[in-house]
């Protein structure tokens, strides 16, 4: 299957999530059969080192086009493509006027799209939420030769609660020629039905602590465990705080998960965390 010029092994993508999507976690998701990994939101003005060994879609956020051209040219050879976040409903996004709160400024969005498209030949995607301007922005993405739209069909007010508006997603699909990547409460129970309406899906919260979900969706066996994450985390020199966060997440589905989490709370080294999982 293809998305623009990308040949993909599966229609199941790892949704862009800020805290879970470190390099070790993304690599494990890819190993389990994820068709395309997304980074968390990244500022084009960031000077931090970015690990891109999985060749992900690198997601940008900003409230203007400043720095986009230089940033894309710096990392373009290391990524599969680019995504622009117009979906984040956080308080920080509200304060700084980016994410879903930028959706009201169509002129600025168009300038950002032009800066992105003018800087790369790789796929460009925009991540949207449901809003009065969603369809207008989809038309802009079409006009500026973007390659796909990822839609989380909840509003800013919904946040991550309640049911996504599936009918709105279908309405957006009819309004644009661009492929829609469906996002929002995707799991093992509903994914097959969703793929009848949309070519690709993003798996978000269902994947946290569980890279194996991608192999399950492909009807394949995979037994990725926390020890596999820890090995990669050490290799990529991830911070202890991040490792501990993932350790907590990986207790999902484990026997005695509550007891494991209780022990992890007091862990102060990766060695301690490793011992807790071995018991």
Can you walk through the features of this model?
This protein has helices spanning 23-31, 68-75, 91-96, 106-117, 134-143, 166-175, 191-194, 213-217, 226-235, 240-250, 257-265, 270-278, and strands at residues 2-3, 6-7, 12-14, 36-37, 57-60, 81-86, 124-129, 148-152, 180-183, 200-203. The chain is of the alpha/beta class and 279 residues long. The strands form two sheets. The chain has an eight-stranded parallel beta sheet, covered by helices on one side. Strands 1-2 form a two-stranded antiparallel sheet. β3 (12-14), α1 and β4 (36-37) form a beta-alpha-beta unit. The longest helix has 12 residues, at 106-117. The radius of gyration is 19 Å and the shape is globular. The mean pLDDT is 96.
List the SSEs and their pairings:
Layout: E1 2-3, E2 6-7, E3 12-14, H1 23-31, E4 36-37, E5 57-60, H2 68-75, E6 81-86, H3 91-96, H4 106-117, E7 124-129, H5 134-143, E8 148-152, H6 166-175, E9 180-183, H7 191-194, E10 200-203, H8 213-217, H9 226-235, H10 240-250, H11 257-265, H12 270-278
Helix pairs in contact: 1-9, 4-5, 9-10
